[in-house]
Amino acid sequence: MTHLSRSGMLKLWAALVFVTVAMHSTTLVWSPVFWIDEVQILDFGRSLVFEPDTTWSISWLPEERPAATYGYLGPALQEGVYRMSGFQAWAPRLASVLGGAAAATALLLWLWARGVGASASLLGGALLLVEPVLVQSSRGGRVDGWAIAAALGAAWAFRRASEGRERSLVLAGVSGAMAATAPFLWPTAVATLVAVGVELAQARRARGFAAIAAAFTAGAAVTGAALVGVYVMLQGNPLAQADVALGAQFVVGEWRGPAEMIPIVLDALVRSLVLWLIAVLAVLTPSARPLAVATGVALLILAPSRLYAYRFLYALPVAAAAGAALFASRRQLVERGHRRLAAVVAPLLLASVVLGAVISLGARQAVAWNERVERDPAPVYAAAQRIGAGDMSVFIGEVEFYHPGRQLGWRMFRPYGEQGDHRPPELLARMDFAITGQEEHDVMAAAGLVLVASIAPASPMARYGPYWIYKRSAVRAPR
Question: Is 465 exposed, middle or buried (0-12, 13-18, 19+ CB in 10 A)?
Fold first, then answer.
């Protein structure tokens, strides 16, 4: 792999991406089981872009409106794919898997532009392609991959622009546009934009830097203004929902005490232990040090937010870049007296790729195939047919009913965020039906809803069920 050419790298990379996407696509219909993030992102796309005047949402606020996020492009992409597929759950999942592959590809191209060589670029891309947290995010229909791809694409474009090539101002403008787009795909991409910061810092003494920086700023300003304008056109004053859009997504996350934070941080460390370790060791070589520092800056940006695994994900691409740069600068380690460390860098990174592949492509797929009967969502669709199609208000206590509900034309309601398990009486009083995962006869009766069906799981090991269906007496009974 030490003499891998650029064309050889790209051919090998294309093959790796094709195999990876193909393997994931075989099980997306039933794995993972339907969960809150994927349906909430879809509903953001519907309520923010496709149906901005909607009167229902599974992210319903006490103020009688849907919750909002400033990152509307990613959800809109998912919702668009979802609609084109006829509301098939696998379609936005496949789009997310492609987004994860795009993020890894953008990392590879950025590393190549930084001059680390074909082998190190391929290694860095592979580290991200099979990174278990990114794979879990992508298979679960999140938009992290697309947001990361835009941020890393911006870094790649600025690097190319700073090399003094033809059309460097155009590339700088494109870089600015992509940098402005990334947070609108998903807000947490602000953390990954430290990659652009690295390029800006390293290019500040380059010939023509002022013009390139001006083109970058212009591209970012025009694109950012346009995207804000679209948001205002669809949703009105963006400050009106700042408490929700910022608080829940990124900027003003809840502060948690050490007892609550330590397990979250440890979980993130264990999930990607080798990457974090290599990123720390990267400070030992001058060529990798800026990326190691950038990884730390990305983590500092994330610190005030509501930390969990998918927040740390936005620092992982920069950590992978630091690892690839350290791999490419092993000779510097030797020259600085770290001969033993230089000898283990390559095995550590290769072991991380292999372990990631085993978890993401081996174990995850094996579990999905082995549990395909238990994970089959057919019982959810069958249970939804007990209510049938129609323009009915349905309270869904179990989020898996979002997909059949979209196909059947329901107006679905569920309190937003941490209130998702609550049963607001004033909301239930307006429902035609309610679906829950446990008996709630007293609560439902108080809202005028009566039990009409209880549905047991298809088997003792089934991942869906049991369900209880309640209806208002003025509505026809389920078939």
Answer: middle
d(Cα 209, Cα 77) in Å, to the nearest integer? Answer: 35
- Determine the residue type at 384: A
Coil, strand or helix at 464: coil
Task: Report the distance separating Cα 36 and Cα 340, nearest Å.
Answer: 47
Separation in Å, CA 246 to CA 12, 42, 51, 62, 381: 41, 19, 21, 17, 35
The pTM assigned to this predicted structure is 0.94
CA dihedral 48, 51, 52, 58 (to 10 degrees): -60
67-109, pLDDT tens digit by residue? 988 999 999 999 999 999 999 999 999 999 999 999 999 999 9
Distances (CA, A) of 291 to 176, 256, 305, 423: 20, 28, 22, 47
Instruction: Report the C-alpha dihedral over residues 366, 367, 370, 376, rounded to 10 degrees.
Output: -130
Measure the CA–CA gap between 436 and 185, rounded to whole angstroms.
32
Whole-number Å distance between alpha carbons of 300 and 191: 9
Tally Cβ neighbours within 10 Å of residue 301. Answer: 18
Query: Kind of pairing, strands 411-415 and 449-455?
Result: unpaired
Query: How many angstroms separate the Cα of 36 from the Cα of each of 10, 112, 185, 456?
Result: 36, 37, 18, 22
In tens, the pLDDT along 202-240 reads 999 888 899 999 999 999 999 999 999 999 999 887 777
Report the C-alpha gap between 143 and 172 in whole angstroms: 25
Residues 278 and 326: beta-carbon distance below 8 Å:
yes
Between CA 322 and CA 317 the distance in angstroms is: 9
Is the distance from CB of 47 to CB of 69 less than 8 angstroms?
A: no
Please state whether the peptide bond connecting residue 32 to the residue before it is cis, i.e. omega within 30 degrees of 0.
yes
467, 436 contact by CB (below 8 A)? yes
The DSSP element (H or E) to which 450 belongs, if any, is strand 449-455
Residue 246 corresponds to which tokens in the numbers above?
């910022």
Contact at 8 Å (CB) between 109 and 77? no
**Cross-strand pairs, 57:** 413
Q: What is the DSSP string of 97-115?
A: HHHHHHHHHHHHHHHHHTT
The side-by-side arrangement of strands in the sheet containing 433-436 is 57-60, 411-415, 393-396, 433-436, 467-472, 449-455
SS3 of 369-390:
HHCHHHHCCHHHHHHHCCCCCC
pLDDT score of 151 more than 60: yes
Alpha helices in 130-257 (DSSP H): 132-139, 144-162, 168-185, 194-203, 209-235, 242-247
